[in-house]
């Protein structure tokens, strides 16, 4: 089964050709990061306009890289939520036009299901059930993947997503957008034990997360230093913040692994490309004898190959969408 996958939920215009869910023949990503950096974050209207400009050439490139044409495709997969509505609509409208013109089945994909499925691409042995921690710009979900396309959400963030916290702290210490990679880079020169930031605990849901308290603690620390005339070392702040986030994510994940007796654990989403987080998860899993999986950095942040992987398993399960498919900006994982 050859799938042309399209992703346009945020600020990456992406298309990929994926065969049988795990064999990526092409993966083209046109990032708008440079454009949005001027504004310190993604400007939705600009994102939509850029998608409409780029989408056709990105798809053409994906087909060319795969040495295939639309006539070789068996289905079209597209992200229809969650994300920015105007951005999603560009990909959805494009996918519908191709499906109509070529009389191909259309499969709408949940963006986070895509992030999780990115793990299938380079780990041919990975099959459900497994536990997955999704840490991205808009989500922090601890998910039990019970089968392909079947998800049980064990916990999620009550406020900021992990990636959002990285972005906000980066802005506060003057690193700019997008924050995650910049915090990671500068952290290499910092001391992760320099400042004791709180490891957020939330009452109720044992696996829920909260990152707004940590973000506020960083902001308070920075303000305190300024008022008292204490010199701020951005690398120490970044490294200490990164460690606090990592500690909480590792603790929750290991707790769930124990409670649910999982022997496979994967991470997904943009923050999953963070080296410190990966190393900590790898070490914690090794101690428990749990198999640890993670996608390469290029498959962690937004891309269409992951959408093609998810679309394939949806397609096998019989999922088909009509030409009335719409963008759903707040689509929940596991909802159809
Ligand atoms: P969502 O997937 O929840 O809809 P999104 O698509 O915007 O949100 P992703 O593209 O998955 O999010 O990930 C982007 C996020 O990942 C940003 O918040 C970015 O700062 C963060 N990120 C990227 N690389 C790193 C890194 N090396 N370390 C930490 N965070 C990172
Ligand atoms: Mg992005
Ligand atoms: Fe994403």
UniProtKB/TrEMBL annotation:
Its EC number is 2.3.1.234. Its cofactor is Fe(2+). NCBIfam families: gcp_kae1, T6A_TsaD_YgjD. GO terms for cellular component: cytoplasm. CDD domains: ASKHA_NBD_TsaD_bac. GO terms for biological process: tRNA threonylcarbamoyladenosine modification. Binds 1 Fe(2+) ion per subunit. The keyword Transferase applies. Its main location: cytoplasm. Keywords: Acyltransferase, Cytoplasm, Iron, Metal-binding, Transferase, tRNA processing. It catalyses: L-threonylcarbamoyladenylate + adenosine(37) in tRNA = N(6)-L-threonylcarbamoyladenosine(37) in tRNA + AMP + H(+). It comes from the Bacteria. GO terms for molecular function: iron ion binding; tRNA N(6)-L-threonylcarbamoyladenine synthase activity. Required for the formation of a threonylcarbamoyl group on adenosine at position 37 (t(6)A37) in tRNAs that read codons beginning with adenine. Is involved in the transfer of the threonylcarbamoyl moiety of threonylcarbamoyl-AMP (TC-AMP) to the N6 group of A37, together with TsaE and TsaB. TsaD likely plays a direct catalytic role in this reaction. Substrate binds at residues 134-138, 167, 180, 184, 274. It holds the Pfam family TsaD. Belongs to the KAE1 / TsaD family. This is tRNA N6-adenosine threonylcarbamoyltransferase. The keyword Metal-binding applies. Residues 24-308 form the Gcp-like domain. It comes from Roseburia porci. It is found in: Cytoplasm.
């Amino acid at each position: 089964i050859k799938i042309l996958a399209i992703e346009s939920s945020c600020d990456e215009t992406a298309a990929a050709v994926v065969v049988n869910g795990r064999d990526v023949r092409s993966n083209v990503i046109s990032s708008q990061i440079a454009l949005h950096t001027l504004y310190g974050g993604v400007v939705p209207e600009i994102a939509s306009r850029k998608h409409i400009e780029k989408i056709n050439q990105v798809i053409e490139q994906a087909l060319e890289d795969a040495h295939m044409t639309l006539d070789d495709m068996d289905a079209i997969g597209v992200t229809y939520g969650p994300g920015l509505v105007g951005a999603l609509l560009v990909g959805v409208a494009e996918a519908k036009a191709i499906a109509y013109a070529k009389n191909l089945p259309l499969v709408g994909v949940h963006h986070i299901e895509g992030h999780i499925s990115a793990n299938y691409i380079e780990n041919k042995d990975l099959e459900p059930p497994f536990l997955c921690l999704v840490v991205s710009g808009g989500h922090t979900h601890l998910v039990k993947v019970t089968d392909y396309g079947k998800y049980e959400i064990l916990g999620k963030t009550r406020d900021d997503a992990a990636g959002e916290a990285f972005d906000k702290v980066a802005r506060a210490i003057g690193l700019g957008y997008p924050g995650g990679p910049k915090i990671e880079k500068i952290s290499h020169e910092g001391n992760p034990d320099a400042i004791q930031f709180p490891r957020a605990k939330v009452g109720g849901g044992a696996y829920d997360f909260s990152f707004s308290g940590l973000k506020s603690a960083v902001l308070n620390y920075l303000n305190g230093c300024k008022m008292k005339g204490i010199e701020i070392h951005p690398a120490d702040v970044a490294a200490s913040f990164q460690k606090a986030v990592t500690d909480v994510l590792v603790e929750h994940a290991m707790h769930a692994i124990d409670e649910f007796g999982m022997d496979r654990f994967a991470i997904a989403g943009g923050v999953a490309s963070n080296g410190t987080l990966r190393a900590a998860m790898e070490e914690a899993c090794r101690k428990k004898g749990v198999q640890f999986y993670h996608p390469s950095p290029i498959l962690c942040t937004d891309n269409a190959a992951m959408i093609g992987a998810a679309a394939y398993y949806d397609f096998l399960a019989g999922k088909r969408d009509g030409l009335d498919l719409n963008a759903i900006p707040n689509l929940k994982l596991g909802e159809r």
